[in-house]
Amino acid sequence: MQRMRDHWWWRPGARPGRRMLLWHLLVDDQPDVRALAGRFRERLAGVGGLDPVPDEWLHLTTQIVGFADEIPRDEVKAMTSAVAESFRTLPPVTARIGRLYFYEEGVALGVEPERALDPVRDAIRRGVAQTVTAHQLDDQPDWTPHLSVAYCNTDGPAEPIFEALADPPEPCRLTVRWAYLVEQVRDGHLYRWDTVAAVPLTG
């Protein structure tokens, strides 16, 4: 990859203030992961064209469900219950996070093994498919789990980012004990959300 591109274009159907329902994996209870993200942000501080993600809004997007104004509350409740039921047989999952993961619109921490979190996403997708009519499952058939530490806000060469992260920090452990259903809105060059439900992995 030679060039980066601006992350902040409007996806189909999105507009200022319109909220989306998504399932996230959050790291609020994992200081090692937040500290690692901070070290990456420090390395990138001198690189222009990037919007760092503050600790409060670090996340691994696991599944986009759809626009909140298209999904009735009873379907949201049924979806949450279906995911909780699937999670009853799924224990917490531990993996490593911190493998440098570049994509065209940002810089992220990748997860190893890459498929370690697939059981979590698969359980979520089953719950969505069973309960939500206006879902967006078909729009995201593939998934590479990652935690973005900075989004690009302009088109430009990737070389300055490669140079800043030529010697990246060491990965650390990530343990997923919960998945979070959130209502997310884009606020300038930042994603913010309100938590709708927190569902534990209890298997």
UniProtKB/TrEMBL annotation:
InterPro entries, alphabetized? Cyclic_Pdiesterase
Q: Which SUPFAM superfamilies match?
A: LigT-like (SSF55144)
Q: Which UniProt keywords apply?
A: Ligase
Q: Domain of life, per the record?
A: Bacteria
- Matching Pfam families, A to Z? 2_5_RNA_ligase2
Q: Does the keyword Ligase apply?
A: yes
| Molecular function GO labels | ligase activity
Name of the protein in its database record: 2'-5' RNA ligase
**What is the native source organism of this protein?**
Thermomonospora echinospora
